[in-house]
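Could someone model nicotinamide-adenine-dinucleotide with this protein?
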Amino acid sequence: MKIAIIGTGYVGLVSGICLASKGHSVKCFDKNTEIVNQLTSGVCHIYENGLNDLLVSSAENISFGILCDETENQLVAFDAVIVAVGTPTVDGKTDLSQIGEVAKMMGRLIKSTDKYISLIIKSTVVPGTTDTFVKNIIEDESCKKLGHFGLGMNPEFLREGNAVDDFLSPDRIVLGYEDEATLDILREMYRPWDCQKVELNSRSAEMMKYVNNTLLATLISSVNEYANIAREIGNIDFQQVMYGVHLDNRWSPLMEDGTKLFPKIIDYLKPGCGYGGSCFPKDVKALSALAEEMLIPPKIIDAVIAVNDEQPNYMIKMLEHKVKDLSDKRVLILGLAFKPETDDVRESVSLKLINLLSEKVSSLSAHDPVAIENAKKQISQSVNVNYIDDWQAAVGNTDILIIATNWMIYKSIDNLASSLTEQIIFDTRSLLDSNLFNPSNYLSVLTKK
Ligand code: NAD
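Reply:
Sure, complex below.
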């Protein structure tokens, strides 16, 4: 099948390369010339495990192009056009301007041809976007009704850091559609995938994505709030508390052979410094705004947001309780990406900690294996951060070491535990083995106050 992808960021690029690896003929378009040039030279512009190798091995099935007024008529050559442009939250609401721009362009294209082309929205959009907002724009621009063109909604559930595996071996594939011909196209597109496929209308597909992300964010905020309460009560072993909670068969089923199955959901039931990234923060806010529009007070959703917004402040409060005076302290932040195995720093808690600490400490250094360049673009010039390559060498010259992203390379700090007697280790991700450290200089959300 000939597939075009509009928007070649994290989702568009991973989708394009993975679809090409299954034998489809794919062309990824972006309006950013720099991105397109880099990809055309065979190098991915994002860091994602295994992605570059898959690009090289699928090279004969994939190409890249710039999308602009002069090139948009190239899209007529494709059976399906997948849209993976950004849908940021602006003033708490989803900004659909990038989707609107693409819909307008597709309307012009559909007007100019008799060919049936199916537009499939992969970007995360609020329920009703595909069957109303997008459909209306295309119909107005093309002066043609749905049926002369197709519409679908295929939400993406990949997790950055594990994106290639998630795309190639998904838990399920969601095929949202507004016309039967689009459903046929989606079935054909994902024929090489042997997993459960859910077929439903586009607004149900859109809703599924929001419920999925908001429910996971709810677990994270809930557990963070419980952990904070436990710390303030004092003398509570919250790690043991949660271990006991996880043993509930409804979280961790007992297998026939008597062993316990600890499913991935347990990872969302561990306290930390809060959620970040390009999806959870914006998607949870978008669902809240949508609820308000529907006159449903989003009480739980807003509480999830409020707890998460507060969590970095609570981290600083914990540190100040331990250290008292931060003003003469040299701080080393380990990890800038919002999670390990990605260079994405959007809404990274690490950057929030840097902003909160910048006025309070004597100096700030930061390390990340792949995300430094992206972080430099996000952190204000007025915040003085010394970005370092050799974090191990810097450990000796620091007073406070903060693990902000649980990259596995930082796990090697366990081996330094006996020599790190002068530094405070603040393990916001509970990555290290706390038993190896002296409680007087080790701090995590799981340590007692
Ligand atoms: P991104 O910012 O990395 O990529 C978007 C790309 O679209 C950019 O490269 C931009 O230049 C391009 N673009 C914008 N308008 C364009 C136009 N008119 N023509 C051509 N190109 C255009 O965003 P992303 O992280 O890939 O997210 C894309 C969508 O997927 C969002 O709706 C997001 O919520 C959703 N999503 C993201 C993830 C994730 O982990 N990143 C996971 C699931 C869903």
